[in-house]
Amino acid sequence: MFSAQLPGGGRLEIIGSSPSMQALFRDLETVGRSDAAVLVEGETGVGKNLVARALHHLGPRSNQPFVSLSAANLTDQLFESELFGHVRGAFTGAYGDHKGLARVADNGTLFIDEIGEMNLGTQAKLLCFLDQQEVRPVGGLRTARVNVRVICATNRDLRESVRKGEFRRDLYYRLRVIAVRVPSLRERLEDLPILSDYFIHRFNRHYGKSVAGLSDGAMAVLLGHRWEGNVRELENEIERAVVLTPDERKILSDTLSVEPEPIVRDEMQPEGTSVLRESRHAAERKIIAKSLQRHQWNVSATARELGISRVGLTRKLKRLGLRRPGTDEPSAG
Ligand SMILES: Nc1ncnc2c1ncn2[C@@H]1O[C@H](COP(=O)(O)OP(=O)(O)O)[C@@H](O)[C@H]1O
Ligand SMILES: [Mg+2]
């Protein structure tokens, strides 16, 4: 886990103990110190914002501003005026002067999120700004020198965008002096239990509750989910479950809104390495074995508790190599 006290009083915490996250934390220490431009890559919700903040915090500019803006959902003109500022009357709606975030970030870090959404015209202006370290507000004549470290994030494959001519090659190399990839939750399911605990704790505090944790069934459902929305999706799922679960009780699989479909998923995940699959299987085996014991190997009752179908559980038992001690088959139940 990565943890740091921020100057403002808050804490920056990145939870994870999987090998891929440990490697990421080691990278953060070295890359953070360098002051180089960094491109943070990873699917949506994996924690790219957290990583960008950690990089800033670890670096030589930690006492200077960290300013972020997103290239998504802004027109070119709005993005440019956000970044470079504008003078009064530069365009319809520009009622006053705007300093621009590049200057607000002077001496600090400028974090540009969703850089892959930026169109070619704006890319050219950004590159020019980075090369000259100078900004000229939209509609203005005078330029100002600024000194910023740039960190960008994207959930796209920018290399592919470069190949397709949608992203400037020169800008790409300028931004990814160093690339840091944040792994998806799917690739590090072994982090799911500590992440869940962390969020349960956080939302208990936030809502003044005392939810006791996850039931084994709920844990099995979470482990089987695909997590397209990664940690953000898990965070939302846990928040909802904490709100809905009575104090002192555990979160049950029924309370969850994610689809309990662990069975088919296994076969649909050729991208998972065998180490990851094995660690997930080990976790599932433990949970399922405990539940089977509780129900004297009654498959229907166990399936019900785990929130999966009976057929699904039977197939899973076969795949995981789980057998009732002394027999060849699990009880017909
Ligand atoms: N490893 C982690 N530990 C704790 N919280 C995390 C972690 N990864 C992501 N989060 C939380 O999940 C949400 C999404 O993270 P964010 O950094 O915005 O993702 P991204 O920028 O990749 O879409 C945030 O609320 C963030 O605090
Ligand atoms: Mg983000």
Walk me through this protein's architecture.
The protein folds into 2 domains: 2-183, P-loop containing nucleotide triphosphate hydrolases (Rossmann fold, 3-Layer(aba) Sandwich), CATH 3.40.50.300; 187-320, Helicase, Ruva Protein, domain 3 (Orthogonal Bundle), CATH 1.10.8.60. It is 46% helix and 11% strand. The protein has 14 helices and 9 strands. It has helices at residues 19-34, 48-58, 76-84, 101-104, 120-132, 158-163, 169-175, 192-207, 216-224, 230-244, 262-267, 274-294, 299-306, 310-320; strands spanning 2-5, 11-14, 38-41, 66-70, 109-113, 134-135, 144-145, 149-154, 178-181. A hairpin with a 5-residue loop joins strand 1 (2-5) and strand 2. The longest helix has 21 residues, at 274-294. The protein is elongated and about 85 Å long. The structure holds adenosine-5'-diphosphate (ADP) and magnesium ion. Adenosine-5'-diphosphate (ADP) binds next to strand 2, helix 2 and helix 10.
Number of E-type strands: 9
Integer-rounded radius of gyration: 24 Å
Going by CATH, the homologous superfamily of the largest domain would be P-loop containing nucleotide triphosphate hydrolases
Supply the helix-strand structural class. Answer: alpha/beta
Residue fraction in strands: 5-15%
Shape: elongated
Q: Sheet bearing the most strands, described?
A: 5 strands, parallel
Q: What name is given to the CATH topology of the largest domain?
A: Rossmann fold
Bound molecules: adenosine-5'-diphosphate, magnesium ion
